[in-house]
């Protein structure tokens, strides 16, 4: 299979000095994934007009000046900051990177249309240019723009053949979290449609305080006793434990056959599942309302660990949640325009596979709902203290033998971003990747990426062979129970 050809750097990285700037410090919550470029991909029908995309990107990054900044490291404190230019931007100063390529093979080389319920993920290279940094250190060393975009064109070559485009949005996970990336996309879509949007105010010149650091440092100074950090899985620390984690993921990939696949689940199937479980919970607990996220997390855990894992294995679900609202409630500045990492794993319990399988989906969803409601500022302060002392750490529970990493970004609607103003005839599928310096693939993870225009939910997974089969069978059982069409 030939790689995409005729790659063009439309707006390569360049740096330029600026007299007036704001230094915006990042926090310890940006450290865990600073060695990872997070990538969101859209497969759309039609050929994207990259000139129109470039114009919209220039406008949005000029208005939202944090996006036009450069990442810097403060060696004495081993922390990161974004230097934000405040002066008019020179023409030769790149506020983003946009590259494009045209494939020399037809799209059918990679996938069949329409996208099947269970299909292999498209190659990461269709959405990511090889020059894109993979870690914060590269962004600093190369003075690279903070957002990177790549488009691969699949033009129609014969009569009746449809054209497609792959659009990739890459950014350091050590700078932006999922909420921040979704905010960037909302602003970009508004610019593509030439519509007004709420532009963040220009930061003040000089050092700019960070509301997370302010609120949590003040809370720590009060000397209150906080719960141990492992409540939220922030317990894996140090290079030796991280090497163990890397080895575990390598085992999943090469021994247990973990691969990256996409499940396109009809809306009727998930509605049947979610509505049924919500009804069960409501019947036994009239005052409790579980969310769709509670139900889908419970269902995923039970399905994936149904077979193939020792009953005595202690498992945990690491499900990331934003704490922006808690910072504001504690008196911090508004987090409305805060695009950086502001998350901790929800305080879910650990349990053995035997205990997990003994619970109904409704019982487990209720337990997850109750745990979610317990998340408080105390948990955030505990995590802040732990990460300050242990900057090299990962959200993996120290008492669990296995962790399922789950992320539900459906509510952010990032997959539903409208590319029609620049040539899209509709989004066909969505993809998520984590590009690391050593190409380590994170296994045992499930991402609910969002919904397509027809309501189909895209579930992006990397699972071992047995667990992939468990999930595929569960989805097929749902399809048999519900008329789809």
Polypeptide structure, described:
The chain is an alpha+beta fold. It folds into two domains: 196 residues, Chloramphenicol Acetyltransferase, CATH 3.30.559; 222 residues, Chloramphenicol Acetyltransferase (2-Layer Sandwich). It is globular and about 65 Å long. The two termini are 35 Å apart. The N terminus is likely disordered. InterPro entries: CAT-like_dom_sf (IPR023213).
Structural class: alpha+beta
- According to CATH, the fold-level topology of the largest domain is Chloramphenicol Acetyltransferase
Report the principal-axis shape: globular
Oligomer: single chain
Count all strands and give the number. 20
Helix content: 25-40%
Show the helix and strand layout.
Layout: E1 5-11, E2 21-25, E3 37-45, H1 50-63, E4 70-74, E5 79-85, E6 97-102, E7 118-120, H2 136-141, E8 147-154, E9 164-172, H3 178-192, E10 206-207, H4 211-221, E11 236-237, H5 238-254, E12 259-265, H6 267-284, H7 292-304, E13 314-322, H8 324-329, E14 343-345, E15 351-352, H9 353-358, H10 361-374, H11 377-389, E16 393-394, E17 402-408, E18 427-435, E19 445-451, E20 457-463, H12 465-481
Parallel strand pairs: 2-10, 6-8, 13-17, 17-19
Antiparallel strand pairs: 1-6, 2-5, 3-9, 3-18, 4-5, 7-12, 8-9, 11-16, 12-20, 13-14, 13-15, 19-20
Helix pairs in contact: 1-3, 4-11, 6-10, 6-12, 7-10
Give a brief description.
This protein is α+β, with helices and mostly antiparallel strands and 485 residues long. The protein contains twelve helices and 20 strands.
């Amino acid at each position: 299979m030939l790689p995409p050809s005729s790659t063009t750097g439309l707006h390569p990285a360049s740096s330029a000095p600026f007299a007036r700037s704001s230094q915006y410090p990042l926090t310890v919550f940006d450290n865990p994934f600073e060695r990872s470029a997070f990538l969101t991909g859209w497969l759309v029908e039609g050929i994207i007009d990259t000139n129109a995309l470039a114009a919209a990107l220039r406008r949005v990054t000029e208005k939202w000046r944090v996006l036009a900044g450069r990442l810097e490291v403060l060696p004495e404190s081993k922390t990161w900051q974004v230097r934000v230019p405040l002066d008019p931007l020179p023409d030769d100063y790149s506020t983003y990177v946009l590259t494009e390529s045209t494939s020399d093979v037809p799209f059918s080389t990679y996938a069949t249309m329409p996208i099947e319920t269970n299909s292999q993920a498209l190659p990461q290279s269709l959405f990511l240019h090889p020059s894109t940094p993979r870690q914060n250190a590269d962004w600093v060393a190369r003075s690279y723009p903070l957002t990177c975009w790549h488009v691969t064109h699949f033009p129609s070559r014969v009569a009746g053949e449809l054209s497609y485009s792959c659009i990739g949005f890459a950014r350091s996970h050590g700078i932006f979290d999922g909420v921040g990336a979704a905010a960037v996309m909302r602003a970009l879509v508004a610019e593509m449609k030439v519509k007004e949007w709420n532009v963040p105010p220009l930061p003040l010149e000089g050092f700019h305080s960070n509301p997370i650091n302010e609120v949590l440092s003040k809370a720590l100074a009060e000397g209150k006793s906080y719960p141990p950090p492992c409540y939220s899985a922030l317990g894996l620390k140090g290079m030796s434990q991280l090497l163990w984690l890397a080895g575990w993921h390598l085992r999943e990939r090469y021994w247990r056959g973990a691969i990256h696949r996409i499940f396109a689940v009809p809306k009727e199937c998930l509605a049947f599942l979610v509505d049924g479980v919500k009804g069960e919970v409501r019947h036994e607990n009239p005052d409790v309302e579980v969310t769709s996220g509670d139900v889908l997390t419970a269902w995923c855990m039970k399905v994936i660990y149904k077979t193939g894992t020792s009953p005595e294995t202690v498992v945990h679900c690491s499900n990331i949640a934003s704490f922006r609202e808690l910072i504001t409630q504690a008196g911090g500045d508004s987090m409305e325009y805060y695009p950086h990492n502001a998350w901790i794993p929800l305080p879910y319990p650990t349990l053995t596979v035997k205990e997990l399988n003994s619970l109904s989906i409704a019982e487990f969803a209720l337990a997850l709902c109750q745990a979610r409601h317990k998340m408080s500022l105390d948990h955030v302060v505990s995590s802040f203290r732990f990460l300050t002392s242990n900057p090299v750490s990962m959200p993996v529970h120290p008492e669990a033998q296995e962790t399922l990493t789950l992320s539900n970004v459906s509510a952010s609607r990032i997959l539903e971003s409208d590319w029609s103003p620049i040539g899209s005839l509709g989004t066909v599928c969505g993809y998520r990747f984590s590009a690391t310096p050593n190409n380590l693939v994170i296994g045992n993870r499930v991402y609910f990426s969002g919904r397509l225009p027809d309501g189909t939910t895209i579930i992006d997974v990397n699972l071992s062979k047995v667990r992939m089969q468990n999930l595929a069978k569960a989805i097929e059982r749902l399809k048999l129970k519900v008329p789809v069409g």
